[in-house]
Amino acid sequence: MSNSSSMPQFLLLALADRRELQLLHFWLFLAISLAALLANGLILSAVACDHHLHTPMGFFLLNLSLTDLGCICTTVPKAMHNSLHNTTTISYTGCATQVFLLIFLFGAEYSLLTIMCYDRYVAICKPLHYGTLLGSRACAHMAAAAWATGFLNSLLHTANTFSLPLCQGNALGQFFCEIPHILKLSCSHSGYLREIGLTVMSACLIFGCFIFIVFSYVQIFRAVLRIPSQQGRHKAFSTCLPHLAVVSLFVSTVVFSYLKPPSISSPSLDLAVAVLYSVVPPALNPLIYSLRNQELKDALRKMITPCFLRSNKLHLFFCRTLMA
How far apart are CA 269 and CA 165, in angstroms? Predict the structure, then answer.
């Protein structure tokens, strides 16, 4: 990356101008990141330790939690550091790392959500073939393909973006490094066209996955409506709603961020939308999945209950010790 010597650092968008608001943003981001780390950590532990969750959906949910943890750890720590120390700088290498990890994790997450949609389709529409189509080896191959797709896509975009000469300053209009804001600093027409070509290729892949998700859910809903019992329909819908909610949250926030009309664009709105699609979903996804997944709720209850019992026993022990 030849620009690193001529462009040692970038300037990120400040979350607020007043010191009190900067500290407020620090504590808010700290609370969100701790909630996301705790929730995703619990899901990872539950899936790994409870044999009832050693299923294809549990395996993909574990991978999804890993992407959520990666997303929250890529942008939030630097934003917290800048708010706490009243600065807006990020090194060239740090910016390139942020861009690579974000595209990698977002790509892997979207691919995993598409695969999880296929899991629901097979479970409801082709239940007799579930064990054959979604065996352990097939699940491992699909998860590896999701991570590899995200890695390759990220590598191409990052390499192209950070090979461009930058001649429009170093101020980015975002609180983390994002390719569209970096391209605004470029003075290379050919490099810009290459990035547009890569973006079109990625958009076609994303749109293809979206069409697959929509088609799968049309088939799923048709199959569910043919179930004679109301209890059976409710159970089938319950297994699909968490995934559908996570997909809707992920797609709607990203689409609104990048396709919103320029007439309603403003620095404060762009900042709020960026927080909405990069920080909020990793914290909400575990909650969405745990609300409707009874097996996951049972596994979490088994994990948390002994901890509460031990803490209560310790509390009683210390109280008796102090009263003695």
Answer: 29
270-291 pLDDT per residue, tens: 777 788 778 888 888 887 777 6
Q: Residue 224 and residue 236: Cα distance in Å, rounded?
A: 7
The answer to whether 182 touches 161, Cβ cutoff 8 Å, is yes
pTM across the whole model: 0.84
Residue 11, strand partner residues: 89, 171
Euclidean distance between CA atoms 109 and 237, whole angstroms: 22
Instruction: Give every residue of the chain whose pLDDT is below 70, as ranges.
Output: 1-7, 191, 258, 260-267, 291-294, 297, 300, 303, 306-324
